[in-house]
Write a structure and sequence with these properties.
The protein is mainly β and about 850 residues long. Helices cover about 10% and strands about 30% of the residues. Among the domains are: about 70 residues, no CATH class; about 130 residues, no CATH class; about 70 residues, no CATH class; about 80 residues. It starts with a strand and ends with a helix. This is DUF8003 domain-containing protein.
Length: about 850
């Protein structure tokens, strides 16, 4: 029993099996050999403390088992000084195994010229023995020239190839790059599994190379420790080399670049114990035709992450404590040529620059996926963002959907601001705090949420989908009979009847709030059966506090219910199986949009439709719900259209088959519009109507009062609609004047009380004028027309000394002349009045007609 600290300070040769257990520590000091050179000898350490194997120390045994709290093995990559190991044999009688490589160490103060070979290679095992592993080569010099020389610590060939050794080079000045080999040996028994690559450490740039020279292998090169002082600058894993960091916790940190090229593979943790946590820190992570495998959780922090035909596969296992991985690339993330990032648990990818999935086959997917803090995300044609996985394994961590709840999860309307991966939230795919999102590929999830985004543009090839990603059961689950006939699931509308051979079952109930929907669609069929059908999921863009600035759609945004033809019928010979169930279609899900403005192009589709029922009698699924929750709707003089809709918006029910009924239509609603605006998209009320209350129904736009519209006027449109009476109008011609659309004379007439009063006043004025003219004519004009005195006849007896005495004939003559002049003047006045009345249109009769 070991309860304190035990240090092995000198060589120790054991002659039998050893088992050491206790709570203490066990240290083997540098340069010490701890050997049990007997065949089959076993050394077992089971301690609660720490274990350390010092520099140049060795443990030799048939079996070595270690259980400890911490274990430290001296890093032999930078300063190798160990021998290679001997290869195995296919025979117990004859040892065919190749010998291990030796050690070469050179410390040159000035110049090293290598024209020959420096070899520490493993021996060849032939066809019956394994190749020996490579040894070690250490070279230190001020200058080196290799010429045609060769430096190698490669593994030996054999029935199974030996592993490569270790080479370290510390040379300041080089005339040429030396040719150095540390690859594994060729396996004659299995050509695709050569020996694992060794390591080449270049001390001047502090770079580690793991290169298997395109020899395919399934065997890994162990990297047990990465130094912190000083940090390595670069790590290269290339040409079919496979490197592994098989620790419970490890931190891989370099100052520069980690590159995996040409079939290189880097793995963290153990495949059957996915409980490890790893940190990877570098300036750049470059992957080309390569793979990174993580068994556990990964915390990656880089500035640039580039992938070309490569994969990063994260296996989170079943341990919820290590179920979340974070990938942070502050400047740039680019996936090209069918590159994949995948996790069967929770995955967060965030940065401050651009995330670009370039084209076909590029994919980021996880059971729960969060993309955050990028200024721009571009999902190229044929690329995919998905959460959860399409074909998740049975042990994958599956997000729990709130299928049986009718209450809206608070995070859908008021999501948290931190954008962290939180398994307690309902989101399966969230894009958070991203300025601009361009979709030319596919974004798909059960609960898809775009939070604190500025603009989203869905191009003609782009799809944002939650179709068939909702509940198999759910609040509006379709019912089914014992014979397997199922009705459609309900949501925004009731599910269709499921009927077969006169047996019918009612459809699923409708549920949810059309004014602010947030429910998953419901399915149909038996949940325990593979034939069950799922409803549509949820797509939420924006939130109450942070609405989307603009949404532009040329492609499609869908949350449709799953149809039977889309699942079972395509993959199974359903019609040949008489006992198969016949489920109905799933109901449509929810599309909830918090936004300022929206544009739907001619080819755009926005839908939440129910799925088709099965051919044997399944009912159609009910339509889902689509809601536009507009923010800060402009009104009055600053009004401008908030939606330009040329595409299609569907929330219809799915079709039933044969005797079965179709699902009821769902709902398409908008936020209550302010005064003057109506409809789903808050457009201006039609000309001639006004709306003085809030709401969206078209019946709220009431006709303007007819008595307020002048005879010669028409109603006109006003920016922002008409909120109050009187409704604005304009005259039909410029010859009429506002507000009553009168001519100038009519305005004068109505100024004096109307046509009748004006005519009476005018007649009175004319009569008065006639009288004045008459008096003036009598006084001024009549005197000029009187006849002069009659000439005096000779011989007359009249006395002319009395001039005022005239004859009766002269008096009568004067009266007749005056009367005739009065008649002429009155006749002229009457004619003038009539002409004026006719020409100017002021006749009362005509005014009444007008």
């Amino acid at each position: 029993s070991l309860d304190s600290t035990c240090k092995i300070v000198a060589d120790l040769n054991l002659t039998r099996d050893v088992y050491i257990a206790g709570k203490g520590n066990f240290y083997i000091l540098p340069g010490v050999r701890f050997h049990c050179p007997i065949l089959g000898c076993s050394i077992t350490l089971n301690i609660s403390g720490n274990f350390s194997l010092g520099e140049n120390s060795t443990i030799v045994a048939g079996t070595f088992e270690l259980a400890a709290y911490n274990a430290s093995f001296f890093n032999g990559s930078a300063n190798p000084s160990s021998y290679g190991s001997k290869g195995g044999s296919t025979s117990k009688e004859v040892d065919y195994g190749g010998g291990g490589g030796g050690r070469v160490r050179m410390d040159i103060k000035e110049f090293l010229d290598v024209n020959g070979s420096l070899l520490a290679e493993g021996g060849d095992g032939g066809s019956k023995g394994g190749g020996g592993s490579g040894g070690s080569v250490y070279i230190k010099a001020h200058k080196i020239r290799t010429g045609g020389g060769r430096i190698s610590a490669s593994g030996g060939n054999g029935f199974a190839g030996g592993g490569g050794g270790r080479v370290a080079v510390d040379v300041f000045s080089r005339h040429d790059e030396p040719t150095i080999y540390v690859h594994g040996g060729i396996s004659r028994g299995c050509s695709k599994n050569a020996g694992a690559a060794g390591t080449l450490y270049d001390a001047v740039p502090r770079s580690l190379n793991v290169n298997n020279y395109n020899l395919s292998t399934d065997t890994e090169t162990l990297l047990l420790e990465f130094p912190y002082q000083p940090l390595w600058t670069n790590v290269y894993i290339r040409n079919c080399a496979r490197a592994s960091v098989p620790l419970l916790w490890s931190r891989v940190q370099v100052q520069g670049q980690i590159s995996l090229l040409c079939g290189g593979v880097l793995s963290f943790g153990l495949a059957h114990y996915a409980t490890s946590e790893f940190e990877l820190l570098a300036e750049e992570l470059l992957m080309s035709d390569s793979i990174i495998k993580v068994y556990g959780a990964l915390r990656m922090t880089v500035k640039i992450f580039l992938m070309w035909n490569s994969k990063m596969l994260i296996d989170g296992g079943e341990d919820s404590t290590v179920a979340t991985s974070w990938l942070e690339a502050s400047n740039l993330v680019v996936l090209k040529e069918s590159s994949v990032i995948q996790s069967n648990a929770n995955l967060g990818v965030h940065g401050q620059g651009l995330l670009n999935l370039s084209g076909s086959g590029d994919k980021i997917q996880a059971q729960r996926l969060v993309l955050s803090l990028f200024y721009s995300i571009h999902v190229g044609p044929g690329s995919v963002l998905r959460g959860p996985l399409e074909d998740a394994s049975s042990y994958a961590i599956t997000p729990k959907l709130y299928c049986e709840l009718q209450d809206c999860p608070i995070e859908l309307l008021h999501p948290p601001e931190d954008c962290n991966v939180n398994s307690s939230l309902s989101f399966t795919l969230q894009i958070c705090r991203v300025e601009d999102i361009t979709v030319e590929g596919l974004i798909k999830g059960s609960v898809v949420h775009f939070h604190r985004a500025r603009t989203i543009s869905v191009q003609s090839s782009g799809i944002i989908s939650a179709s068939g990603m909702g509940c198999i059961g759910g609040v509006g689950k379709g019912n089914f009979l014992d014979n397997g006939i199922g009705s459609g699931g309900g949501h925004g509308g009731k599910g269709g009847l499921g009927c077969y051979n006169s047996s019918c079952v009612g459809g699923g109930n409708s549920y949810g709030n059309s004014k602010l929907p947030c429910e998953l669609g419901s399915g149909s069929g038996n949940e325990s059966s593979a034939d069950s059908i799922a409803g549509g999921g949820i797509i939420v863009m924006g939130s109450v506090e942070h609405p989307l600035s603009s949404l532009s759609v040329e492609g499609s945004v869908r949350a449709d219910g799953e149809g039977f033809a889309e699942t079972v019928w395509q993959y199974k010979n359903f019609l040949s199986n008489v006992s198969s169930i016949a489920p109905g279609g799933g109901s449509g899900g929810t599309v909830l949009l918090f936004l300022h403005t929206m544009t739907l192009g001619e080819s755009a589709i926005l839908s939440s439709v129910g799925g088709y029922g099965s051919p044997k009698g399944g009912g159609g699924g009910g339509g889902g719900r689509i809601h536009f929750h507009w923010s800060n709707i402009p009104t009055g003089d600053v009004y401008q259209p908030i939606a330009r809709v040329k595409g299609s918006i569907y929330a219809r029910g799915g079709l039933g088959r044969d005797e079965s009924g179709s699902g009821e239509n769902g709902t398409v609603t908008g936020k209550a519009c302010p005064k003057g605006l109506y409809g789903t998209f808050c457009v201006e009320c039609p000309v001639g109507t006004y709306k003085n209350v809030s709401g969206s129904d078209s019946s709220l736009c009431q006709p303007c009062p007819a008595w307020e519209l002048p005879h010669r006027a028409i109603y006109i449109a006003v920016r922002g609609g008409i909120a109050e009476t009187p409704c604005p109008y304009k005259c039909i011609s410029d010859r009429y004047h506002m507000p009553n659309c009168y001519t100038a004379l009519e305005e004068l007439i109505y100024t004096f009380g109307g046509p009748w009063l004006f005519c009476l006043l005018l007649v009175g004025l004319l009569i008065l004028l006639a009288l004045v003219l008459s008096v003036a004519r009598m006084k001024f004009v009549g005197v000029d027309e009187l006849p002069g005195p009659a000439p005096t006849q000779h011989g007359s007896q009249i006395d002319h000394s009395f001039p005022f005495l005239e004859s009766l004939n002269e008096v009568m003559y004067w009266k007749r002349t005056e009367l005739r002049n009065h008649r002429v003047m009155c006749t002229e006045c009457i004619l003038w009045v009539l002409i004026l009345s006719v020409n100017l249109g002021i006749c009362p009769t005509r005014l009444q007609k007008k």
